[in-house]
Specification:
alpha+beta, 6-stranded antiparallel beta sheet, 31% strand
């Protein structure tokens, strides 16, 4: 059981990513999110999450792999959930915090894509809103040299 968690990513604070998603949704409706019933990351959107009308879900498990991949601009990690499932996800926040053996929990919501979304896209998308990692002084050291600077969330 994890005694203390560190919040390493919070969508509420990720202004750059949110601006990019909102602009993409406005300029490319075939590739963005629907603004109904709420604009992505608006005060109303967060209120709906906080009050439960947009369901917040969590996935918890143990990081099983956190090595660099060929996707330098989209660093990934692997985890094993409590039910034994294996998942691969993007590293949000500080990528050096993803250390093999540490526990991780991420919260996400499912949002509707724009009605004009491309046919090859799903009608919904899961959006990570926060990432929590077990408190530890451990870091993934090889990422310091692998990335010129830690990438921002994608």
């Amino acid at each position: 059981m994890v005694k203390k968690w560190d919040l390493i990513y919070d969508l509420r604070e990720d202004v750059k990513h949110v601006r990019r998603v909102q602009e993409q949704s406005a300029s490319s409706p075939d590739d963005g999110f629907s603004s109904a019933p709420f604009l992505f990351r608006s005060q109303e959107w967060w209120a709906a999450i906080d009050h439960g009308s947009i369901e917040r879900r969590s996935v918890e498990g143990t990081i099983t792999e956190a090595q660099p991949t060929s996707m330098v601009d989209r660093p990934v990690f692997r985890m094993r959930t409590q039910d034994g499932s294996e998942l691969t996800g993007l590293r949000y926040g500080d990528p050096t915090r993803y250390v093999e053996g540490l526990h991780i929990r991420f919260d996400y919501v499912t949002v509707q894509r724009s009605p004009e979304a491309q046919l090859d896209l799903n009608t919904t998308a899961d959006v990570v809103i926060s990432v929590w990692i077990e408190r530890s002084h451990k870091r993934t050291p090889y990422l310091h040299s692998f990335y010129a600077s830690p990438p921002g969330p994608i």
